[in-house]
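Human: I would love a firmer grasp of how sequence relates to backbone shape in proteins. Take your time, and here it is.
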Amino acid sequence: MKYCSTRGGVSGVSFKDAVIMGLAEDGGLLVPESLPDLTPFLPSWRSMSFTELAEAILAHFADDIPAADLHGLVERAYETFDIPEVVRLQEVGDTHVLELFHGPTLAFKDVALQLLGQIFDYVLAQRGEHLNILGATSGDTGSAAIAGVRGRDNIDIFILYPLGRVSALQELQMTTVADANVHCLAIEGSFDDCQNIVKTIFADLPFKHRYHLGAVNSVNWARVLAQIVYYAYASLRFDAPVNFCVPTGNFGNVFAGYLAKRLGFPIGKLIVATNENDILARFFATGEYARGDVRFTHTPAMDIQVASNFERYLYYYFGEDAAKVRRFMEDFGNHGRAALDGAPADGIVESTSVSNDDTAGAIGTVFAESGYVADPHTAVGLAAARRFAALQPMVCIATAEPAKFPEVVDAAVGREVATHPRLAALVGQPSRRSELPANVDAVKAFVSERVRA
């Protein structure tokens, strides 16, 4: 399996090189040069455990890793989870909820980042190299990435997050990690500012090569690949094609479901559920992709106006025509707007936007009806799922432990229900962060002064 860029300037890249490269060097995102048809394998895969299925799927995309080594990477990644099955399907009224938050940082990002940390370590050890990871987070990616690589001698990690725009517990999950290879940068701006700084630095190829920068955000292909597994796993648990409702900010999570369907898994519709930052909902309704002002909501991980994985969707929507992707993204970069001739008609993706009030209302309603406690991001998905109630079976992606957002959840329910001992233990611990302006040069200077190799 080889990988190429969505913009056409990079091709013939092996899986291990794709992982280390992160963002393609022409500014695009790496995708497989061709997608395999996995439908012949589905009958035998239905009885597999999550880890067995992960290993079977990854083998088709990471063919430069020997089978025995891949087995070890998968086993070590998922032994860190609190439940043996890694992910859990729960019935909540007419909807099934796929809980992805049973990893070390209690967020869905652990499913991919525990594996990515193992792969990084494996490749770097083989090559005798050191990697400096640079990433941006709107909440959960940072802590999950840190948990995946903390304490590793051949990796340093620099995580940018918007100052005052992640929950207090999300920040503590990052800033209380004392390992010397961990650097938390609180940026005076929005998540989009953080993400733009990271992308700009990666586009400076001399700087990227000099400091051997790697990506941990969902621009890294391995992140998306690992996320395909839970769509595959859930879809094989039903007798009919499954519809998924996905709380969406950066589009990486729902894009993994889109790829799972293209690979042959029994998936029907994908519901893109945004919060009030509705750039994606507007695109799927009208075909116009237009930047707006960031609105800060109960769901900070979704307070995003530029969805980094959207480019991968465009690549397949345009029939893998890299030139069309490049023109679309250049229009958007130059004007803050780009458009199709009309709403995309792929028959796969539906979309809706959920307000702050509807998010809180969904938390309270679901708890009153079923006793289920949902975090605000999952509540966006549950509210959206009710708008598409005719689509059955429906699985809503549950992205985070509700105790990460106790103020919103407890207020919506009317009493204290959002607690978790692992999070409670963080309060009062020593923490460290560096506050920086939303400035590329300031971040470059910070990185260059602190890299160990």
